[in-house]
Amino acid sequence: MTLPCPRLAVRAILKHEGRLLLVNAYASADKPLMCAPGGGVERGSSLPENLKREVWEECGLDIAVGAPCLVNEFHDPHGSFHQVDVYFHCTLNGPATIDPAWQDREAIVNRWRWVTAEELAQIPHKPDSLTAAAFGPVVSSIYDPLEPIVR
């Protein structure tokens, strides 16, 4: 039996005034897991183009995409889901305000938070290396090995 190839996604390490932008990982309010904004890559667009689109769709923010800074992969050890996320340092091209009425066209992202490193430590989030990528010393890249999916 052949399993599908891993899904490729892009995510933004987007900071403003010392705070990192997080979005909910699941639409359901009873699942508190947060992550960096981003999503699946569409064939025919570059990774930065995909990331600009995803952040706009999820948050209504215009960004500039910088250098990649983290590769993370995760999977469901009991199923076929496997995803590889490429994270990029990003900056805002405009204001950091997210319209509270903004609606993600896929109806997944419905909560946003700008958080400090200290606040991030108190919030359920993935990947485990997000703090290092966002608030640690700038390095060329970090590889975060395969992690089990969180349910």
Topology:
Elements: E1 7-16, E2 19-24, E3 34-35, E4 38-40, H1 47-59, E5 63-75, E6 82-92, E7 112-115, H2 117-120, H3 130-135, E8 143-148
Parallel strand pairs: 1-6, 5-8
Antiparallel strand pairs: 1-2, 1-4, 2-3, 2-7, 5-6
* Gross CATH architecture: Alpha-Beta Complex
What would you report as the Rg, rounded to the nearest angstrom? 15 Å
How far is the first residue's CA from the last residue's CA? 25 Å
**Outline type:** globular
Oligomer state equals: single chain
Classify the secondary structure makeup into a structural class: alpha+beta
Average pLDDT metric: 92
- Quantity of strands, as a count: 8
Number of domains: 1
**Poorly predicted ranges:** none
Provide a descriptive summary of the structure in words.
By secondary structure, the protein is an alpha+beta fold. It has a single domain (7-148), classed as Alpha-Beta Complex (Nucleoside Triphosphate Pyrophosphohydrolase), CATH 3.90.79.10. Helix content is 15%, strand content 36%. The protein has three helices and eight strands; from the N terminus they run ββββαβββααβ. The protein has helices spanning 47-59, 117-120, 130-135, and strands at residues 7-16, 19-24, 34-35, 38-40, 63-75, 82-92, 112-115, 143-148. Strands 1, 2, 3, 4, 5, 6, 7 and 8 form an eight-stranded mixed sheet that branches. A hairpin with a 6-residue loop joins β5 (63-75) and β6 (82-92). It is globular and about 50 Å long. The mean pLDDT is 92.
